[in-house]
Amino acid sequence: MLGLSSVKQAIWATLPDAWAVGIQYRRAHGRFPDLRRPATFTEKVQFRKLYDRDARMPLFADKAKVKDLISAMVGSRYVIPTLWTGRDVETVDFDALARPFVIKPTHSCGQAIFVRETDVMDWNEVRARCHAWMDSLYGSRTREWLYGHIEPAVMIESMIGDGQTPPADYKFFVFHGRTQLIQVDIQRFGDGQERAIYDAEWRRLAVQSTYPDTRHEVHRPELLAEMKRVAEAIGSPFDFVRVDLYVVAGRVYFGETTFYPASGYARYRPDGFDAELGRHWHIDAKAPPAREQTAFSFG
Prior knowledge:
By secondary structure, the chain is an alpha+beta fold. It has a single domain, classed as D-amino Acid Aminotransferase, Chain A, domain 1 (2-Layer Sandwich). The chain contains 8 helices and 11 strands. The strands form 3 sheets. Strands 7-6-5-9-10 form a 5-stranded antiparallel β-sheet, covered by helices on one side. Strand 9 and strand 10 form a beta hairpin. The longest helix has 13 residues. The two termini are 39 Å apart. The C terminus is likely disordered.
């Protein structure tokens, strides 16, 4: 007999994508998105989820395959070394890998296992988590189309930084090949994650999103100009993409590309910033085809 949670999931899976997106957006933002005339950044993310089927996006979002693309676009020196990738995690001799390293799924976001020099690991538990990752369809509930077009696999890569704490994550919001916003996440994957938001010239913005605004000033990276060049070279094929970079020991490293940041459900404070950010993103937002219209009006 199905439990209540399973019944809810089954019902949710049958909803038209536009309905599901509209309901989730209202929960996050207190209103339905305008999908016919999207204006804010978060509305345009919803429009992309529903109607943008750019075949390049799954390749750029695949954490393993994107490394070859990045090497070709900006050079292999920006790519974090991969120690292993595949589906058969039972064959991996984790103890033979050079520590520290990070284990992550290739087809999702925000999931990782950090293996440090002195960590005592239960590899059976690690393998179970890897199988759970591969058995799940990331992004299905939020209707993030591209993740259903990435073959689930596991990647193990070297851990950059001090080997203990992930380095600050610099997230470049690149619109039409130009950086318009830089979001810096500190203590990601740890307790007390904080965030700071800057414009392209590294001027601190009085903007908050999801995580507490860090009380500390994040120093302007010495390699900021290089980081912008790398992010914009990677982002130039798209009208929008977020390019995540790290700086460690005087070197810039590529992290990942994201096409649906926070699935478009992150709230910005002040409220008007969502519309301000959306003005940088020029999309061909025509009304959806008649067959995709629903009786549920979102705008």
